[in-house]
Amino acid sequence: MCGLQVGSCSRCENPSVVYQPYSGQRLCGRHLRASIRKRVSKDLRNQLSLPKDAREADGSPFRILAAVSGGKDSAIMLHMLFDILGKRRDVEIVAGVVDEGIDGYRSPSIDCVEELCSMMDVELVRIGYEDIGYQRMDEVVKIMPAIAEKNPDAKGMMPCSFCGVFRRQSLNTLAEKTNARAMALGHNLDDMAQSILMNLQKGEVERSVRLAPHTQTPIDGLPPRIVPLRWIPEQEIHALAMVMGLPFFHGECPHAAGAQRQASRNIIAALETNTPGARHGLLHSLENIREAFSLSGEGNMDVKSCSVCGGVTSREVCQSCTMKSWLNEQT
Ligand code: SF4
Ligand SMILES: [Zn+2]
Ligand SMILES: [Zn+2]
Questions:
Q1: Which residues form ligand 1's pocket by a CB distance below 6 Å?
Q2: How many angstroms is it from 46 CA to the middle of ligand 2?
Q3: Distance from residue 135's CA to the centre of ligand 1 (Å)
């Protein structure tokens, strides 16, 4: 598998830091950075088509909210966005972090985010779950059994089911506050392949079709989400973050039961070992499915307004408001 490998770079004399079984190449730190930049830059043009002057009518720059978490992926994503777009005066990148309220996990990762943003001189905006009417995740986890007892829909839900909804809502609020026109997420190739596999095995093709990037099929009222690292394997991102000496947090969230994601991670890793390039294949397949959906018009999500908050949803009451009412029942 990839990882730190002995041997010299396929493009120069320097020692390699990564081996790509899917391409047969070994790359040193400098060539790994150049290779990732090239792939990200090419895909970014597909995901976000910016005019020559992307400024708003009032002259303010086109703002991109980069969702950062303190992990390696979002650190490299922020760096790449700056590297590629940072010189444009008509584009501004703002970093946004969500504090889920998880003791021992969030504060060290927010320290990494602060260090990264001050190193790069990037504005950092933040939001906590309590700021928008939820509760800290540590509290939510405590009251989850009582919620499940009262509400059949909540049975079998894991902490991440709640956290995912709250996080999405928090990022939407940050995007609104910062007037962001696009939101960048740090998902890498392994994350994408795992999500595609999990959705396909449940027969949820549409769910995969709705995965970011959303530039071709924007959801009304929400800034499109882009995923600049979606073609970059996790090991390469990890190696580059180490080579560049970026501050990032290695810890695991204590509520990440995520048995399904873990199983999917193992399956994807085994697939890739047996057939190098399998992760790329899964993402290419999704692109083809997406194309077929958009040609047939089936990919257009049935967009409604939530009867409680007015937010974008495919249901009568959005998932966020439903969960808020569950939380309020317990307090
Ligand atoms: S692992 Fe789950 S609970 Fe923990 S931060 Fe991520 S989504 Fe939230
Ligand atoms: Zn090299
Ligand atoms: Zn709502």
A1: 100, 137, 159-160, 163-164, 253, 255-256
A2: 27
A3: 14
Instruction: Give the number of the ligand closest to the Cα of residue 7.
Output: 2
Q: Which CATH number fits domain 33-301: 3.40.50.620, 3.40.50.720, 2.30.42.10, 3.30.950.10?
A: 3.40.50.620
Positions of E strands within 100-228? 124-128, 182-184, 225-226
Residue 296: both structure tokens together: 């047939």
Tens digit of each residue's pLDDT (9 = 90 or more) over 151-182: 999 998 999 999 999 999 999 999 999 999 99
DSSP state of 222: S
Instruction: Report CA(72)–ligand 2 centroid distance (Å).
Output: 22
Q: How confident is the model over 258-311, as pLDDT tens digits?
A: 667 888 999 999 999 999 999 999 999 999 998 888 777 665 556 788 999 888
Q: What is the pLDDT of residues 33-68, one digit of tens each?
A: 999 999 999 999 999 989 999 999 999 999 999 999
Domain ranges of the chain: 33-301
- Apex CA 328: angle with CA 324 and CA 331, to 5°? 145
